[in-house]
Amino acid sequence: MATLTEEIALAAARLVVEEGLEYAAAKRRAARDLGRRSQRQGELPANEAVEDAVREHLALFHAETQPAELAALRRLALRWMERLAEFRPYLVGAVWRGTATRLSAVHLDLYCGDIKAAEIALVNAGVDFELAPGSGPDDTVFTAAVPCRELGEAATLHLRLLDLDELRGALKPDARGRTWRGDLAALRRLVAEEEGASGGPAP
Question: What pLDDT digit, counting tens, does each position of 130-180 carry?
């Protein structure tokens, strides 16, 4: 019989895949949906547990569509990382970890020597960015809806501006040794491997 934490992970995974929620929001809502209005410490599953449940859900219900959607979002992320290469971009989240669907946002962390100059550069880039709340009080996050030709619709792009000093811990792995983020070179290799396996990018 599944524990409450396992039930929350399974319910959160459905919300991540079917509604595009981020892990933290999905876990909180899943706990409320299961009648846990106050989430005690240790009751909510770790992100790795939710990710495992997401992978299982994708394999069961979206195996035919998810790989192509993931590849499209990775190529979109690659184009933006090349465009923003001067800010040392790293891809994070579901697009990097391989669990993204067409509902997933593209998350890029930008490591800047001068965050204010980066803000100005983004404003001058001609993209309709909006300033969005970040995960911390000092986070600067720009959000935009950007066209994704392969999906035939707009995708959400989040750019989080971080101080260059924080780059040192950027590649800290998870409990299983997998990285939480990848730089431009790593994503290029990943996209090239995927295109080689599939016979090339979508037309």
Answer: 887 666 666 789 999 999 999 999 999 999 999 888 887 777 777 777 888
DSSP letters for 145-190: EEEETTTTEEEEEEEEEEEGGGGGGTT-B-TTS-BSEEEHHHHHHH
Instruction: Write the single-letter amino acid at 191.
Output: V
Q: How many whole angstroms separate alpha carbon 162 and alpha carbon 169? A: 12
Burial code (b: 16+ CB inside 10 Å, e: under 16) for 188-199 equals eebbeebeeeee
State the DSSP H helix or E strand holding residue 140, giving kind and residue range, or none if neither: strand 140-148
Q: Cα separation of 126 and 67, whole Å?
A: 31
Domains with residue ranges and CATH for the chain: 4-61 (no CATH), 66-198 (3.30.460)
pTM: 0.89
pLDDT tens per residue across span 33-60: 988 765 665 689 999 999 999 999 999 9
Q: What is the 3-state secondary structure (H, E, C) of 32-71?
A: HHCCCCCCCCCCCCCHHHHHHHHHHHHHHHCCCCHHHHHH
Q: How far apart are CA 200 and CA 196, in angstroms?
A: 6
Q: Which residues of 153-167 are buried (b: 16+ CB within 10 A; e: fewer)?
A: eebbbbbbbbeeeee
